[in-house]
Amino acid sequence: MNAPVIFRDLGRQPYLEIWDAMRRFADGRDAASDDEIWFVEHPPVFTLGLNGKAEHLLAPGDIPVLQVDRGGQVTYHGPGQLVGYILMDLRRRHWGVRRLVSGIEQALVALLAGYDIVAHARPDAPGVYVGEEKIAALGLRVRRGGSYHGFSLNLAMNLEPFTRINPCGYAQLAVTQVSAYRPEITRTQVIGDLTSCLLRALEYQTSGAIVHRQDSIP
User: Fold this and answer.
1) One of 168, 194, 197, 202 is an active-site residue; which one?
2) Residue 112 lies in a domain
């Protein structure tokens, strides 16, 4: 495809504001709109997907719970996690959701391999795993032929909130993070390396890609 894409690093932003911005983007895109990928970090929040079951919220406590319009069950977002939102025109590419999911998983596996972390995807449960422990979660929505939502990659965070849920609907699923293997790896480094991996896996133009650092939401 060799299509162009715009990367934005939005820093830490409230979940609801980013969610609203993604829906505005989806509603406003047209055939001339470039795809975008947004990197962001959220304050603590549990999100429950369209088919999410409340029974997987074990003890959320003081962390807010939001019912959202992505696929999947329940997950946690918080400081120290890198969230990537994939705003791709699937109709223009003639891609299905499965192909996009596979591309995201391939990019994350390649990123982690570059840090000597052996990771893999699973055909029965979207996401990326190190052994039996989940290190990245996926959840997408397609609207008007375009995707939004995306993935979350655990970098260096407090993992305790994951014990308050059945992550992605799986009881007692263990989670892990990059810092457990490579504590010196920084968020800035991950964004730079992951940008290259996403360009290749999602078949974007591999030259001239720039990550725009901005505090304001598009």
Assistant:
1) 168
2) yes
pLDDT in tens, 23-35: 999 999 998 999 9
CA-angle at 69, arms to 4 and 92, nearest 5°: 30
Q: Which helix (H) or strand (E) holds 197?
A: helix 187-201
Using alpha carbons, list the distances in angstroms from residue 194 to 46, 61, 165, 178.
Answer: 24, 33, 28, 13
* 197 carries an active-site annotation: no
Task: Work out how many domains the chain is built from and give that number.
Answer: 1
Q: Flag whether 218 is in a domain.
A: no
Residue 9: inside a domain: yes
Contact 151, 190 (CB under 8 A): no
The 10 Å Cβ neighbour count of residue 118 is: 10
Q: 100-137 pLDDT, tens per residue? A: 999 999 999 999 999 999 999 998 889 999 999 999 99
| CATH code, domain with 146 | 3.30.930.10
Instruction: Give the residue numbers spanning the domain of 19.
Output: 5-213
